[in-house]
Amino acid sequence: MWGLILTLFFLLYGIICYYIGKRGWYLLGRPTPLKKVLYLLILSLFVLPFPVSEVFEDLLPASIAPWLTVWGGFSLVGLLYGFLLLLMIDLLRMIDQRLPFVPARIKEHQKTPLAIGIGLILIVMTAVGYGGWNARHPVVTPYQLSVEKDAASLEQLKIAMVSDIHYGPVIDVERVKRLAEMVNQLQADIVLLAGDITDGSLPPGEADRLAAGLERIQAPYGVYAVPGNHDRDLRDDESQLMTSLEDAGIQVLKDEATLIHDRFYLIGRDDPDRNRQPARAELKDLTSDLERSKPLILLDHQPIDLKQAQAQGVDLQLSGHTHRGQIFPANLITDSIYEEDWGLLQEGDYHLIVSSGYGTWGPPLRIGNHPEVVLATITFN
């Protein structure tokens, strides 16, 4: 199944690149042999990095792979936006042929194609440049909630939640240290890591570096985490990453519930994986022995099974995974897949907060959303 998806993706990628290449060739008019060579070379610098970095990731030298991955991500988004803009231009041209609205002096001007080409390139470069800058400047997104339950002497709880760090070739240990500083400035009572801490399996030694960065996070009630679909090293309870996180004081919850200072429950769900046996536990089994009079806080990487959470009396669910599409217009897809792909959803006593995440997956850009740390303040009544 995954092979079929990859095949279809690269087929679509090839169509996009061919379309852009052909339209650019048209702008050259009758190019000289030198212009032909230069054009093909420049086009290759934008077309090849992404597939090469994806297909030959494990074969590339460690000094080259991260840079090629970053450039491949930037060029991929640039090609996508260029393709969409060219489609829009061609659509307007087709409409103009039937219902003329473009002045003749513009259509017939010798430099109009060149001006359109330059304008298109500037728009794409601006969008991609902003996306790269935006991805490296996270914001704090605050929420104020009210829960009608007794948390003993606790009247208010401040939760800092971080999802989708994607530690790996792009999000390095320095970015994790900056994250820790950002979280500590919030002075939260508890810090929750909602999955996809890593971008995939880590090379030797990286688990300790990641844990050392996260160990800087301080909170009175501790730091807790759940696995995400990218956290392959957290599937094994004896993995180096599990050991390193535990040594750093970070407790990973996989289908577990824990009572925090006899005031509220934190329920951490394992990420769903159909190939794993046994499958993740049912939420009703995780909550069957809990005191429902106490607040129930659920940490689940993906914003799914919302009706189950409501039925089990969960007061607040914290999730990530969606990235809010990460790059416009992918947010239209996540919005159609999930009941809530970002922000706060409240239905009765149930609250759901979905974060757009801190890091990036694939292209190191964010367009149409911001990387964030969530700060949820709960008032108990």
From TrEMBL:
Gene Ontology MF terms in the entry: hydrolase activity
TM stretches of this protein: 6-25, 37-56, 68-92, 113-133
Every Calcineurin-like phosphoesterase domain range: 157-324
Alphabetized UniProt keyword annotations: Membrane, Transmembrane, Transmembrane helix
Top-level taxon of the source organism: Bacteria
UniProt-listed Pfam families: Metallophos
PANTHER family: TRANSMEMBRANE PROTEIN WITH METALLOPHOSPHOESTERASE DOMAIN, TRANSMEMBRANE PROTEIN WITH METALLOPHOSPHOESTERASE DOMAIN-RELATED
Protein's recorded name: Calcineurin-like phosphoesterase domain-containing protein
